[in-house]
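Here is one chain, start to finish.
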Amino acid sequence: MQKSKHFTRKELLQIIAPLGLGLVFYGCNEAAPKEIRELGKGEEKDTLGQVAEVLGQSGCVFVFPENKQFKGLNQPFNLRVPKTPKCIALCSSAVGIQNAIIYAKDQNLKVGIKSGGHSFENYSTLEDGLTINLSLFKSIEVNGDEATIESGCLLREVNDALISKGKILPAGSCGSVGIGGLTLGGGYGFFSRKYGLTCDHLIEAKMITAKGEQLIVNKDHELFKVLKGAGNGNFGVVYEFKFKIHPAPKLFRRWKLKSYKMTLERYKALLPEWIKLTQSLPESVFAAFVQNKKTAVFLITDFEQADLQGMIDRFAILCDKTYPMTQVPLAKALTYYYGVQESIPFKNSSAGYFNSYEDFEPFINQVIPIVLESKGLIYQINTLGGAIGNAVFREDSIYPHRDYALLTELQAYWEESEVGKELVQQNSKILTIIEEAGVSAQYVNYPSAEFKSPLEKYYGKENIPQLMALKKAYDESNLFARPQGLSNEEENKV
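Its structure:
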């Protein structure tokens, strides 16, 4: 069993400061379990030294809405979907997670799990529930070709730690995403076509179940496969991962092309040519087609010095502008794609997996005109394929979408609330059109509250019986009850 960590005041300040918190209240009330409540006796003190002391003893501090630090800890990445739990358990060890679960059961609270807090629909937080916050789980240890990474680490922190040692973990691109949610839902990005998904590199995970039991989950455990693609908040609190890692390339190349004054007709001419281009790309190459109102941006990246110039030149003839190829050190290059790091309102979601231009034809005439006329609405197509379809990875993971070559996503950003309302409506309209056209596969890390039968879309209809059986075995009381998650409650089985 992992013991409670002992933080110095300085260490705690370094970890908590990025959360926007100066001090944290270690509140305990009369309803808390005795062993936790004992720590809260005496007058209220909220110094970092006191917090460090309590964490060292119980591995957990409780923050309530009336505490001034609650707002900072409860800050959602997506300001469009704020939620207010009854309590936040800021944990620092397995013991602390167990204490938080004891408290949740005692208070009859459902539990949400927040590592990076990057859920598009804020599913890591439950209204009137308890949030287990893993922000203090920040350890990263590299040992040869393996890395042990705690769930609270953000991707930018993982990249900094690994690249400095000449290693990489194939993962996403957004710097503020938590490694916990990223891995448990799959995890794809620039390196996936060469090496596979983030979850494909999982060797072992440590977690606490709804019963408060600690599990070490590896290839011999029945939860191992399902944590790799269906582990987000369904079976327990995963607080530590052990990964296989790869040598980091020294350089990262990028090509960017643009087409202006896009029309439906031009889009329909460019898309099949772009798909043809992506089908012949080496596995070290990632490509994206980003339609932002009437401007199309084509991004191509590579980290192995592949010979791409000929095919890019042929595609460039169809575009209006070609930017010079850039080549920079990997660590610097990845920061270009880290995206917005602070909380903003937005509506992003998966928009389906595809293989060919013919897959887009049933809805392209309806969807693309909406995108072309909606400022702030982005329709993006990303390349998959390559090692993602590896037979060994397929056998060792429940992630169901390995046969697809392309993943699409919708993004909407705004500054004025009225504009936001309109963009959310347009987003929902597009998702309805796509669903009615028969698109039935979606990426669980890009959820949308609008999806009908979301579990089948995220996990594959064929996998639902196995997942439900394991949910009943490890969380029969639905302690972990996030929206669109696995549930034993009849009304939530959708």
